[in-house]
Amino acid sequence: MLNRVTLRIDTDDRIALLGSNGNGKSTLVKLLANRLAPFSGSITRAEKLSIAYFAQHQLDELNEDGSPYDHVRRLMPDAPESKVRARAGAIGFSGKAADTSVRSLSGGEKARLLLGLATFFGPNMIILDEPTNHLDIDSRAALSEAINEFPGAVIMVSHDRYLIEACADRLWVVADHAVTNFDGDLDDYRRLVLSARGLRASPRERGDNDRDRPEGSKSENKSENKGEKKKPLKQKISEAEAEIARISGIIEKIDAALALPDIFTRDPKQAAQLSKARAGAASALQRVEEAWLEASSEYDEASS
């Protein structure tokens, strides 16, 4: 649950939401999209505000046997063919491309089509929920280009560093039931998260000193029982933290390689492989972070 959320979104904002899974990012975007009503307080929207919602899973809703022209035609049932084709061209499907079956489109082309359909009626804001999952580097680049061409406000939930750095100019952190503006970049945020983990580890270390009390008291027995319960949890936490550091190091090396100015023109195959490797590493990092959070929560419960 989110509490005391006071935010303002302007027409030219490009905002990325950061925070661990389960902290309320989905709740926030549902509130913004008017798909969820606030339990208290109010949301003031500009008159005639329209919001489009784009999520990667919506790609499955496209008609694989239909063409971009067919999808646009459904939104313009009474328009002459020339106008339908003009609108299809406006979202990136001119000429023969408009008649290509969705089944034959690349991941990026499908994403561009879906984004074009979502923004078809000129919304003032678009909300993107993990839009690049399973997209290759070319598809991500095409999607980021389409997002940057969008004239309104953009709110995105994504773990994709490439997309965030290409499209967002503001970062909001969703954590501890609150949403706050983050004054820094993604590297600053990662350092903050790692620093917070280090600070949380210190009390745990001090908690183990309970076992150093003299023998013969009930409190000592209770402390020993707690200590026995905490040992495997502490081991899980240490292993997870080591794995987080290892995977983060791999991601940093991949990012450094992808940052080379000529990598995509000099060796596009290698660039694609690096992008795929980074996506896999990011997914692995997310799983380990979730395991770390679960073990940390169990440890805190055992310490109380």
Question: What's the quick description here?
Answer:
The protein has helices spanning 25-32, 68-75, 81-90, 107-118, 137-149, 161-167, 186-207, 218-258, 263-266, 268-303; strands at 14-18, 51-55, 125-129, 153-157, 170-175, 178-182. The protein has 304 residues and is α/β, with parallel strands linked by helices.
Write up what this structure looks like.
The two termini are 23 Å apart. Helix 4 (107-118) packs parallel to helix 5 (137-149). Strands 2-3-4-1-5-6 form a six-stranded mixed sheet, sandwiched between helices. The protein is an alpha/beta fold and 304 residues long. The longest helix is centred in the C-terminal third of the chain and has 41 residues, at 218-258. It has helices at residues 25-32, 68-75, 81-90, 107-118, 137-149, 161-167, 186-207, 218-258, 263-266, 268-303, and strands at residues 14-18, 51-55, 125-129, 153-157, 170-175, 178-182. A hairpin with a 2-residue loop joins strand 5 (170-175) and strand 6. It is built from ten helices and six strands, in the order E-H-E-H-H-H-E-H-E-H-E-E-H-H-H-H.
Helix content: 40-55%
The parts where pLDDT drops under 50 for at least 5 residues are 199-213
Number of helices: 10
**Mean pLDDT across residues:** 80
* Overall strand count: 6
Give the C-alpha Rg: 24 Å
Helix/strand structural class? alpha/beta
Ends distance: 23 Å
Strand content: 5-15%
- Tell me the overall shape: globular
Order of helices and strands: EHEHHHEHEHEEHHHH
Strand order of the largest sheet: 2-3-4-1-5-6
